[in-house]
Amino acid sequence: MAKRTFLGEFELMILLAILHLGDEAYGVPVSRELENYCGRSIALGSVYASLERMENKGLVSSSVGDPTPERGGKAKRYFRVTGEGLREVQETRQVLTRLWQGLPQITEWKGRQA
Amino acid sequence: MAKRTFLGEFELMILLAILHLGDEAYGVPVSRELENYCGRSIALGSVYASLERMENKGLVSSSVGDPTPERGGKAKRYFRVTGEGLREVQETRQVLTRLWQGLPQITEWKGRQA
DNA sequence: TGCCATTTCTTCAATAATAGTGAATATATG
DNA sequence: CATATATTCACTATTATTGAAGAAATGGCA
Questions:
Q1: Does any strand D atom come closer than 7 Å to the Cβ of A57?
Q2: Which domain holds residue B69?
Q3: At CB < 8 A and 24+ separation, what contacts does B70-79 make?
Q4: Is residue A72 part of a domain?
């Protein structure tokens, strides 16, 4: 069996999106948030699948809210990042930050070139 | 078929390790470099597998050097990050940087807590 | 009132791609 | 030939992606 591994890129981004959204972190806005940050479309199914896996690993927890009084206002499943999830994000950030420090070809790039 | 996706966490780290190593970037030191940065052991096979995939995707290129005059000095396969590989690293870094900006619970963490 | 179309959100099933492992293989030198 | 360095291989596990189906709610209209 494959042993414990890194946080996947997608997992990392989802965790960060949840932190950004705070109390409004359920599947749909998480997906929208990612699309905004990444500039590409994200399949909702992949977000839910990843959330499911991360809940099993203890990186996020979820709770189902009440239905809202609006058309299609089905109860939402809200997600939070657990302490362990936060720790993993922090560690990943540390490693990446160290890795791209001292690499001018990376860090001096300011965005898509003209 | 799954469409084009993000750079995986592992792929990203390998690309960064290659950039750090410059002219000495072949399988073994790449793996060692990762172990140093990540603080965990890395299976050599997984590094080669990832390098292989990335070469197919055009993110790295490789060339086989000459044997070196030392015991077991088998010819090495050196890797370089291509222009496209570099661009992907840069874009990934941009997205991640934006995502963890404004999150004090992430950015104000200075390392493994005492 | 009682349906049903519509909306919002979640789950599912199936496939592709990536990660990880241990053993095997290839080539050097001493 | 034993040993050292490096790469490749075969196989399994985990993660990513997609498209469609399922659940639950409201709004409007006969």
A1: yes
A2: 9-103
A3: B76/B26, B76/B27, B77/B26, B77/B27, B78/B23, B78/B24, B78/B25, B78/B26, B79/B18, B79/B25, B79/B26, B79/B27, B79/B30, B79/B51, B79/B55
A4: yes
